[in-house]
Specification:
- It holds the Pfam family LysM.
- It comes from Billgrantia endophytica.
- Keywords: Signal.
- Belongs to the E.coli NlpD/Haemophilus LppB family.
- Among the domains are: 45 residues, LysM domain (Membrane-bound Lytic Murein Transglycosylase D, Chain A); 107 residues, Glucose Permease (Domain IIA), CATH 2.70.70.
- 20% of the residues lie in helices and 16% in strands.
- The chain has 6 helices and 12 strands.
- Strand 11 and strand 12 form a beta hairpin.
- It is flat.
- The N and C termini lie far apart (106 Å).
Amino acid sequence: MRKLFLVSAIALAMTGCAAQQEGSAPQVRDLSVSRELTPSSQYTVEAGDTLYGIAWRHEMDYRDLARLNRISPPYSIQPGQQLRLGDDAAAPSRPAESRDAAGSEVATATALGGGMAEAGDSDWLLPDDEAIERSRRLTAEPLDPERAGPSESAMMSAEQVAGAEAAVEREPERQPGPPSEPEPDVQPELAVTPEPAIEPEPEPVAEPEPDAGTEVAGAPEREPERDGRTYTPVDEVAWQWPVDGELVGRFGEGGSITAGIDIAGQKGQPVKAAGPGIVVYAGSGVRGYGNLILLKHNDQYLSAYAHNDSLRVTENDVVEAGEVIATMGDSDAETVRLHFEVRKDGQPQDPLNYLPER
């Protein structure tokens, strides 16, 4: 009977444990989806990136991106560099404070020659009264009479010095000799320098004119040299259409890039600057834009020209309004078109609100 009761008690205990485990099972949630939807707050610089291109890709003002990462003009960045994209991004970690193996706080400074100083204990800073009294007593005591006079070695040294001074006084002074006759002044002869022969200036060589018939049909006109131009921000941008063609995409309509307008055209058609400014980006490093040009007009406005076939400008080139900067193409696009954007303080604007009506 006792064995049967013991077996029943054990069975009841095991049943209770199993029920308790089933009731306290941990809840598991899949966070992978939320992680994918959360935008990254940092960006790793790749070869070919510029600060303007990175800011354009993330719809930021280049000045805000430079301020977040403490980058000053000319905004130089290096491949592999980590850039913060927002104020909520983790700041560079600082060295951790020193702690011992048991996790105790930082050790407190100790007094010189002593052990650990307790809080409020500053006795080691007070003067030593015994040492002061001992020094005062030694100063007041008279010297030993036997040692009061100078030593024998000091007396001998003094006699040697006195003898040397006496020998110096007995040395006869030198008598001044008769005055020497002044030397006659000799005037140097003036050297005559022959005048250099004037060489005739070489006649300018006429540059050969291009052969007739070498111009390519449909190619954009040659632009003047950009060397020597100085960038001056304009107060007001006199916007003009960058290319002639049919409007096939409006601001905010479909497609992967909706921050501007799309203008259809023919491959090789000239693309012109919509306003005067300086080229701050020229390349294909911004995904989805193909061969891209970013033109800075002033501290507020930038314009973009994407999907180009060829680029006729490089970074830091100063261009004028209406100057050819590229040719139309279909890089990163299904058809030949120009994707044109206008951004104010890094934020996309509808270009049709700035371009003149046509």
